[in-house]
Prior knowledge:
259 residues, 13 strands, 6-stranded mixed sheet, 8 helices, Purple Acid Phosphatase, chain A, domain 2, 5-stranded mixed sheet
Amino acid sequence: xxxxxxxxxxxxxxxxxxxxxxxxxxxxxxxxxxxxxxxxxxxxxxxxxxxxxxxxxxxxxxxxxxxxxxxxxxxxxxxxxxxxxxxxxxxxxxxxxxxxxxxxxxxxxxxxxxxxxxxxxxxxxxxxxxxxxxxxxxxxxxxxxxxxxxxxxxxxxxxxxxxxxxxxxxxxxxxxxxxxxxxxxxxxxxxxxxxxxxxxxxxxxxxxxxxxxxxxxxxxxxxxxxxxxxxxxxxxxxxxxxxxxxxxxxxxxxxxxxx
Length: 259
């Protein structure tokens, strides 16, 4: 596996700096089907900048809110969705973890685009390693108010209700829920990170070799050894301040930033 992991772009408007930076980064990614042909020729001009991968993991909150209906999506997200479709066509396996700002993703990303969507956790076994990947909003079990909001917003009654609402009202409600969720998380990065460290240590004892999370917006990678085996814990940062991502290649983890 040769993979890129990223999270927390919180995309809203295509004019935002982080949005443009993420579009530019996705344009650098090259899949197995791009080695030859016209797509490969386009990459030849930016050969030194391109990154060849087999898998792309989006670990939640890529969108600041998400609701779709059939093939209709929020118009501002068209550029990113087109990039993801092109990457899938290029042979890259795309894995999408739901976050606390973007959920109900399966209808569109699995149903229409054929991507792998994980509502809570992704457990991936490759290269003799066991990866646990997720947004990380479920780690802090003490934040009762957030967990209640999460259950309500993801409930089947709410899902069916949103199907009945006009899209203009639905997107307005999505913006409100996004702001509400963000307010419950403000000022808690360090506290959440410490809980994530404890969570990762427990998962290492359960046999996982790498725990990769978003949500806390910190760019951090820690390595440890458990029973003689190397373990890696990563929080991915964001595309609001850091423009950060994790590259897994040749069995090694590299935490980097888009220049």
